[in-house]
Amino acid sequence: MKIIIDNKIPYIRETIERIADEVIYIPGKEFTPEVVRDADALIIRTRTHCNRELLEGSRVKFIATATIGFDHIDTEYCRAAGITWTNAPGCNSASVAQYIESVLALLKLTKGKELNKMCMGIVGVGNVGSKIIKVAESQGMRVLLNDLPREENEGGTQFSSLKEIAQECDVITFHVPLYKEGKYKTYHLADEQFFHSLKRKPILINTSRGEVIETEALLKALETETISEAIIDVWENEPNINAKLLDKVIIGTPHIAGYSADGKANATRMSLDALCLHFGIKTAYTIIPMQPENTIIQAPTREEALLKIYDPRQDSNRLKSHPEQFEQLRGDYPLRREKEAYTIEEGRGENGEGKSTM
Q1: Phi, psi at residue 161, to the nearest 5°?
Q2: Which residues of the chain have pLDDT under 70?
Q3: 215-228 confidence digits (pLDDT tens)
Q4: How close are the terminal C-alpha atoms of the chain, in Å?
Q5: H-type helices in 91-201, by residue range?
Q6: What is the CATH topology of the domain spanning 93-252?
Q7: Are 111 and 152 in contact (CB under 8 A)?
Q8: SS3 of 281, please?
Q9: Residue 209 bears catalytic tag
Q10: DSSP string of 207-228?
Q11: Which residues of the chain does CATH 3.40.50.720 include?
């Protein structure tokens, strides 16, 4: 068996080299028809577009993308060509929740936001959005949910329209997949019309896909103060992102919200599981991220502790200093563990005592 793997997928070499006869590791953009022609399987990320142009005439029978999204895979072509594909739904949902939790901590500490008096609108309530509900509620925020597919399937009164979110929310965060067409189209979901409907000058957060928000409409909303702030992790035309927008957002990061070591390990494990299932391979393996040097976090408040574990300003400062290094910053992302890897000791007083939490 020959497998070609994106060389930025971590924690995979030891296991995959026991499974396959030949393994080739290459950058995601270097998958070409010539390279994949005699491969049996591909393990990719979002930078590799698996379509007729890449796959026709190859012997590829299985594709695993170590990502939640799969809009880079031409699923109709794969179905017609008899190629099985799989993604990793929910693999980095806790990582994105960590990103949002740290962003809220920043808003509270540096902008003086009284989160317990604010309303958050969550657009897209799948694996990620469901975790964001808990993050918001832990801060005492009122939460409105928008998810058209779930609303149609489940009914009930737990969902709000996008118009209601635009009118009532102080923070709006997007967690939808990218659908360019169809009933649940999300391409440019936040367009000029959406921004015109906003009533409360909200803070806008996007960690889903860049194309969910229309860049020019977002820039205009920032310039006219239709929104108060923007926190953007995903961009249209990545890696060639809009420099003017990067300059205007308070936090701008290189598509790394889901890039915790824990999330990456989950994605690798899910890809390996799917590969073994497809080819009928039985083997045991363990995927464990590296431990941080110091697992004890001491801070006066929980917000300060969360920012000691992960502070998005560091990623933002690196990108703002070197936007031309978008792909490198993303590809060579440093170790980042989620809060469950730490013991947090908050509220330490003069007697050295404090509350210890995980």
Answers
A1: -75, 160
A2: 348-358
A3: 999 999 999 999 99
A4: 43
A5: 93-110, 127-138, 148-154, 162-168, 192-196
A6: Rossmann fold (3.40.50)
A7: no
A8: coil
A9: yes
A10: -S-GGGB-HHHHHHHHHTTSSS
A11: 2-87+260-279, 93-252
Q: Is 51 helix (H, G, I), strand (E, B) or coil?
A: coil
Catalytic residue status for 137: no
What is the tens place of the pLDDT at every residue in 37-92? 999 999 999 999 999 999 999 999 999 999 998 999 999 999 999 999 999 999 99
Give strand pairing partners of 232. Answer: 206, 252
Q: Are strands 84-86 and 343-346 parallel, antiparallel or unpaired?
A: unpaired
From 47, 72, 150, 209, active-site residue: 209
Cα–Cα distances in angstroms (integers) from residue 170 to residues 30, 130, 142, 163, 196, in the given order = 43, 19, 10, 13, 15
Give me the amino acid identity at 306: L
From the candidates 151, 168, 238, 304, which is the catalytic residue?
238
Instruction: Spell out where the chain has E strands.
Output: 2-6, 22-26, 41-44, 62-65, 84-86, 119-123, 142-146, 171-174, 203-206, 229-232, 251-252, 296-299, 343-346, 355-357
Active-site option among 47, 72, 255, 337: 255
User: Is 168 within 8 Å of 119 (Cβ atoms)?
Assistant: yes
Q: How many residues does the chain have?
A: 358
Name 49's Cβ contacts closer than 8 Å, sequence gap at least 6. 72, 73, 74
Whether 255 is catalytic is yes
Task: Show Cβ contacts of residue 10 under 8 Å, excluding neighbours closer than 6 positions.
Answer: 261, 264, 265, 268
pLDDT of residue 255: 97
Q: For the domain covering 2-87+260-279, report its CATH number.
A: 3.40.50.720
